[in-house]
Request: fold
Amino acid sequence: MNLVIRKYSTPLITGLFLVSAISGTALFFHWQSGWFHSMHIWLSMVLLVPFFLHLWRNWAQFLLYFRNKSMLAACLLSFVAAGGFMLTSGHRGGNPAMRVFPVLTKAPLTDLAPLLHRSPDDLVERLTHSGYTVHATTDTLDQIAAASGQQASAILLSLLPQQGGGGEHRHGNRQPS
Reply:
């Protein structure tokens, strides 16, 4: 095991770091985000394995770095920067759909239809054809769900347009190039 760690940890860390750096840069600049998003997330997780094995093997030498004030300053600066992003990013955490779905399911079909690029009558026809009980275009998905014995979020999901594989993951309001 020690030979494997010694022989492969640094090359794996180097290779996976380069992949992470390239994919992270591509994501930052919104270049082919569909290609890089999953790669970046998964291979960054894989990078942790050789990193921790390398750290474990060199633990005594690693601790020597903390005798130097520059290591403590670098760690402190890194955590302050991370905290600053956490406090100012505007993300409250969790899945944003959990906050959006209740707003959409309480909207009448007349208000929801333009968001789905359909007419209210088209939504009524589509929902009725799918077996849901709809009384009027002023019904909400919550009302339709209650009348049909279903979950409003499931009805909303059935109405949303299907995205063709590899959906884009965007940060901020900038559109990809």
